[in-house]
From TrEMBL:
This is L-threonine 3-dehydrogenase, mitochondrial. Pathway: Amino-acid degradation; L-threonine degradation via oxydo-reductase pathway; glycine from L-threonine: step 1/2. It is an enzyme of class 1 (oxidoreductase). It holds the Pfam family Epimerase. Residues 62-73 have a biased composition (Low complexity). Residues 79-314 form the NAD-dependent epimerase/dehydratase domain. Residues 51-73 are annotated as: Disordered. It catalyses: L-threonine + NAD(+) = (2S)-2-amino-3-oxobutanoate + NADH + H(+). It comes from Linnemannia exigua. GO terms for biological process: L-threonine catabolic process. Catalyzes the NAD(+)-dependent oxidation of L-threonine to 2-amino-3-ketobutyrate, mediating L-threonine catabolism. PANTHER family: L-THREONINE 3-DEHYDROGENASE, L-THREONINE 3-DEHYDROGENASE, MITOCHONDRIAL.
Length: 410
């Protein structure tokens, strides 16, 4: 019974994340030429909502009347994180807040944040398709850097290409334009999905053939190129890393093709069996969440401009069969099944178009990228963390059964 309940909780969370986002359909398209008169018309065609809603009041800055001391004191950068309720955002927000103080990191999304997240620092509603709303946040909160995490991931994007074009491209264009106008540093991750079927598959370098054939990959390659253009043309400090599949135990994945590598752990512990949607020999690059956050922070905070805007970063590569064998070292009874090759899942074609491993030597050279977790450590940690979650859920269920209304009535 418990197994059914907890696994269906997990499934419904995953389903929720894969639903199309209603807010996107309310967006209207017009030029904001009147708003920024100093810019040329060609750079101002961004899709924004007609009405900008008000964010909550920004922080009050006090220097106790001592203006010269305040002017001399170095201050931390003020960072806005978009899409901060996704798989990667909450961990990054936590890390940045520990470095710069809660009040200096403004988290944002278009969904309601959990109570504990709200309590840990400022959180605002920010639809990345709404330029004026974003600009107001940047101005009111005096933002210096933006980590732009809002996106539709590969599998979700493939199911709704029009929405993916809006969120992934228009949202990014809005952020990039704001970075130009307000001199922001902009970190916006790319993906292994920006490569394509004609890209060399093994040890894929930073600079190579890039002809993605998924809508996710096309939007992300567009963003890479546009970011590089703004850096060259307008001096925007645009930084990006091509993330591989990211594994995390605490936050559910947002609908990507590498999600199997997270789901498999939940099923291994909760049911002992997993129906994999990729074939057993599909090799993809992967990374543990804490490495992703560390690499992102090191890249974001690197003090001087780097030789290139976009870098590969990676930690390890494995197939579903290899991951299964590693899990079975801890859970010998775990079983897995794969799709009938005659009827592959739609995500197989996406995975087949991506590299099997990345050459990330430039990131290692330029900003000291180095992973802590290989596959073996990652598997052990994922299993330990998910087992702890299941044990905690069991405790809640048994204490409800003992102390709940029915027990009390009895
Ligand atoms: N997770 C991975 O394995 C992975 C791999 C490669 C690249 N990336 C990239 O990292 C970034 C973060 O990924 P993630 O896994 O956290 O994604 P996610 O899907 O878990 O989260 C994305 C967030 O964006 C928000 N969002 C959607 N539409 C929005 C809108 N119109 N305005 C504002 N926010 C909106 C969603 O509510 C969600 O919280 C993305 O750019 C993604 O492409 C992730």
């Amino acid at each position: 019974m418990l197994r059914t309940t907890t696994s269906s909780m997990w499934a419904s969370t995953s389903r929720l994340l894969r639903q199309p986002l209603a807010s996107a359909t309310t967006t209207t398209r017009f030029s904001r030429t009147a708003a920024i008169s100093s810019l040329s018309a060609s750079t101002r065609l961004f899709s924004i909502s007609a009405a900008a809603s008000s964010p909550p009041p920004p922080p009050q800055y006090s220097n106790n009347g001592n203006n010269s001391a305040a002017a001399a004191a170095p201050r931390h950068p003020r960072v806005l994180v978009t899409g901060s309720l996704g798989q990667l955002g909450s961990g990054l927000v936590k890390e940045l807040r520990s470095m710069y103080g809660n009040e200096n990191v403004v988290a944002s999304d278009i969904r309601k944040a959990p109570e504990e997240f709200m309590a840990s620092g400022p959180f605002v509603y920010a639809d990345v398709m709404n330029y004026s709303m974003l600009e107001r946040i940047v101005v009111d909160w005096r933002i210096d850097w933006v980590v732009h995490y809002s996106a539709l991931l590969s599998a979700v994007a493939e199911k709704n290409p029009a929405l993916a074009l809006s969120v992934n491209m228009t949202g990014f264009q809005n952020m990039l334009e704001l970075a130009k106008v307000h001199r922001l540093r902009l970190y916006s991750p790319s993906t292994i999905g920006a490569f394509g079927p004609s890209t060399p598959k093994n040890n894929t370098p930073d600079l190579t053939i890039m002809r993605p054939n998924t809508i996710y990959g096309i939007t992300k390659l567009h963003n890479e190129l546009l970011g590089e253009y703004y850096r060259e043309k307008f001096g925007v400090d645009f930084r990006s890393a091509r993330y591989p599949g990211i594994l995390s135990a605490d936050t559910p994945p947002g609908g990507g093709t590498t999600d199997y590598a997270v789901d498999i752990f939940h099923h291994a512990i909760r049911t002992g069996h997993y129906d994999c949607f990729l074939s057993k020999d599909t090799r993809l690059p992967m990374m543990y969440l804490s490495d992703c956050i560390k690499g992102t922070v090191d890249h974001l905070t690197y003090p001087t401009p780097l030789p290139q805007s976009v870098y590969n970063i990676a930690a390890c590569s494995f197939t579903p069969a290899e991951l299964t064998a590693e899990i079975q070292k801890h859970l010998p009874h775990f079983t897995i099944s794969y799709p009938d090759p005659a009827h592959p899942d739609f995500r197989q074609a996406i995975a087949d178009s991506w590299p099997a491993s990345l050459d990330d030597s430039m990131a290692r050279r330029d900003f000291g990228w180095k992973e802590e977790f290989g596959m073996e450590r990652m598997v052990k940690l994922m299993l330990d963390k998910i087992q702890a979650q299941v044990d905690a859920e069991k405790k809640v269920v048994s204490s409800t059964a003992t102390n709940g209304p029915a027990a009390m009535a009895a």
